[in-house]
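#struct-queue
[09:14] JT: dropping the first one here, sequence first, then the structure tokens:
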Amino acid sequence: QVQLVESGGGLVQPGGSLRLSCVASRLNFRWSTMSWYRQAPGKERELVATHIISGGGSGLINYADSVKGRFTISRDNDKNTVYLQMNRLNPDDTAVYYCNARGTFWGQGTQVTVSS
């Protein structure tokens, strides 16, 4: 069974940075589209960033408008790990962040709280 384990969440002040990590196991990671979602209290889960792997192996990256220019998704195929570098955080970024593989598999989530 595919397992995704997120880490790196925490409490940060507005303007600060965090890097989330998601380690995948029992997954053909190199050929899997990996994404980050988030869910704030009382809101629906939303897509934050995705690294799409096409059939040829090339990648396409998309971001939600709200995080463009501040967040960066990246991956290390040798470590089966996808990252989300989050800069210039603001209180609206407060949410539980989830890793997703292939649009199917989910991690348990990691809390990110942006507050002074």
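[09:21] JT: and here's the second one, same format:
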Amino acid sequence: QVQLVESGGGLVQAGGSLRLSCAASGRTFSSSAMGWFRQATGKEREFVTSISWDPSRTDYRYYADSVKGRFTISRDNAKNTVYLQMNSLKPEDTAVYYCLALGHWGQGTQVTVSS
């Protein structure tokens, strides 16, 4: 059974940082792309960032314009885990953050940025 478990969310002041993790189990994800999405209250789920199966291919990391330069995605295939380092957080980054891989979603982790 495939399972994605996000962690690392929380409450942070504007300008602060958080690091999210998404641990995958049930199968090996080392050959698949992985991504992060987010959904704010009352809004549709939106793309945040994605990463190729090969963590060394930085040219195959994509970011939404709204997070470019502030967020960094990375992965550790040995741990079947993808990370999202979020710096210079803004109140508009407040949302539930979801991990996606091979058509499977995690349960999400809440990120709240106070002004």
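[09:30] RK: nice, looked through the second one.
[09:31] RK: The mean pLDDT is 94.
[09:31] JT: good to know. The first strand starts at residue 3 and ends at 7.
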